[in-house]
Automatic annotation (TrEMBL):
GO terms for cellular component: nucleus. It comes from the Eukaryota. InterPro entries: TF_Kbox. One of its GO terms (molecular function) is DNA-binding transcription factor activity. It comes from Brassica oleracea var. italica. This is Floral homeotic protein. Residues 60-117 are annotated as: Disordered. The lineage of its organism: Eukaryota, Viridiplantae, Streptophyta, Embryophyta, Tracheophyta.
């Protein structure tokens, strides 16, 4: 019977005092629900901010690694140019780099498979 009252059914037989009591119960329940929802949203926002910070730190680290490798390649190219100035030799291939794999990074290399759908 109480559940029907909570659903707004069978209210005709209730006295004004009973209706006021039901309204207070519903208000209290609604406040608890809103409080719980807000706490879950707050926790979710905090977790997303933590993940964002970790991704930004990793992005910064990877950018630094890229710049360092570019500087090494530039120095190697300059050294090669100085050693082979005027000899018309092709430049050496770039050194093999270890591929950095991370769950947040997407590969920029084309896939050998055609992805349909």
């Amino acid at each position: 019977r109480n559940q029907r009252h909570y659903l707004g059914e069978d209210l005709q037989a209730m006295s004004p005092k009973e209706l006021q009591n039901l309204e207070q119960q519903l208000d209290t329940a609604l406040k608890h629900i809103r409080s719980r929802k807000n706490q879950l949203m707050y926790d979710s926002i905090n977790e997303l901010q933590r993940k964002e910070k970790a991704i930004q730190e990793q992005n910064s680290m990877l950018s630094k690694q890229i710049k360092e490798r570019e500087n090494v390649l530039r120095a190697q190219q300059e050294q090669w140019d100085e050693q082979n100035h005027g000899h018309n030799m092709p430049p050496p291939p770039p050194p093999q780099q270890h591929q950095i794999q991370h769950p947040y990074m997407l590969s920029h290399q084309p896939s050998p498979f055609l992805n349909m759908g």
